[in-house]
Specification:
This protein is α+β, with helices and mostly antiparallel strands and 301 residues long. Helix content is 47%, strand content 20%. The chain has 8 helices and 10 strands. It has helices at residues 2-8, 12-17, 20-32, 147-183, 195-223, 229-258, 264-271, 282-293; strands at residues 37-40, 56-60, 63-74, 81-87, 97-103, 109-114, 125-136, 140-141, 185-186, 189-190. A hairpin with a 2-residue loop joins strand 2 (56-60) and strand 3. Helix 4 runs parallel beside helix 6, helix 5 runs antiparallel to helix 6 (229-258) and helix 6 packs antiparallel against helix 8 (282-293). The chain is elongated.
Length: 301
């Protein structure tokens, strides 16, 4: 999770739209692994509803004055800089936001409590406050007012990453479950020998391969410059739901051992629940897909 934020969530907009000076100061050391980055979008009252963020960046001379807060920020406690989304004017919600590279050592940046989670425990999650934080206007990424669009583009990469990161763990979980259930005996035969078990594992493996194919298609189109918002949303939706399905089914077959902290299935069960929430909840993915299908109520045909 922490690495994914660094590579596919906090840096794509900087790589695509940032000035050469910004790339040299922030992107180069981030790619090299010399510094840690985080992404500041979500707030206590605006998670998937990005347009509703309240953090502001008011221009004053050659600087911006930032005030507000961010919530559920992965890497927030260890980050050296944050890719921050803030409102820079009072215009329409989709045209009044900008992205900034903000050093976390800047005066007025407050790292509040470290948020305890049920999963993804290897990455820290922070609540952040910004109290009259002054940064030079050169720290803005691209054009002022284009931040919402830039962030929506960053979400494409985040959602593709969310699909890719799930595949190998799910494959491994199927393999581990086959091995365990093949050895575990009940009523004189292995758990795996029950048709409902080996049939179910076959179904799940098939679903994993279908997700892999969808992900490859989406990434291939993205690499050619195609807008993959719809397909990336489908990948994200499917990966989140399939991860829940696979981990839940496999945990059932592990029985009491699966409910302990001694096996991977329990960790994956906790960790991958986030895939249907972070980076846009399942319901948001469905709304995006429906928008492309022109089936949303009130949407023009």
């Amino acid at each position: 999770m922490a690495i994914g934020v660094q590579s596919d969530m906090a840096t794509p907009a900087l790589a695509r739209f940032g000035s050469d000076a910004l790339k040299e100061e922030f992107l180069r050391p981030t790619v090299a692994g010399d510094v840690v980055a985080c992404l500041g979008v979500s707030e206590a009252t605006a998670g998937s509803d990005v347009a509703n963020i309240k953090t502001t960046a008011v221009k004053k001379g050659d600087d911006y004055i930032i005030n507000g807060s961010k919530m559920w920020i992965t890497n927030g406690h260890q980050a050296d800089w944050i890719c921050l989304l803030a409102n820079t004017n009072d215009g329409p919600a989709h045209k009044n936001k900008s992205l900034f590279c903000l050093p976390m050592s800047t005066k007025g940046v407050v790292r509040a409590k470290k948020i305890e989670k049920i999963g993804m425990k290897c990455s820290d999650t922070a609540q952040l406050f910004f109290e009259d934080v002054v940064i030079p206007k050169k720290f803005i990424i691209g054009q002022e007012g284009a931040g919402f669009m830039y962030q929506m583009m960053q979400f494409q990469e985040e959602r593709m990453w969310g699909s890719a990161v799930a595949l190998e763990p799910l494959d491994r979980l199927i393999r581990d479950t086959i091995e365990y259930t093949g050895q575990r005996m009940a009523f004189g035969k292995s758990i795996l020998s029950n048709q409902c078990v080996h049939f179910r594992l076959a179904e799940l493996q098939t679903e994993i391969e279908l997700l892999r194919s969808l992900m490859y298609r989406t990434i291939g189109m993205y690499a050619k410059g195609t807008d993959v918002t719809n397909l990336a949303s489908m990948c994200k939706l499917k990966s989140g739901r399939l991860a829940r399905e696979v981990t839940d089914s496999c945990m059932q077959y592990w029985g009491g051992m699966g409910f302990t902290n001694e096996v991977l299935v329990s960790r994956f069960y906790r960790d991958f629940r986030l895939l249907s929430i972070g980076g846009g909840a399942d319901e948001v993915m469905l709304s995006i897909i429906c928008k492309h299908m022109k089936t949303l109520p009130g949407q023009g045909k």
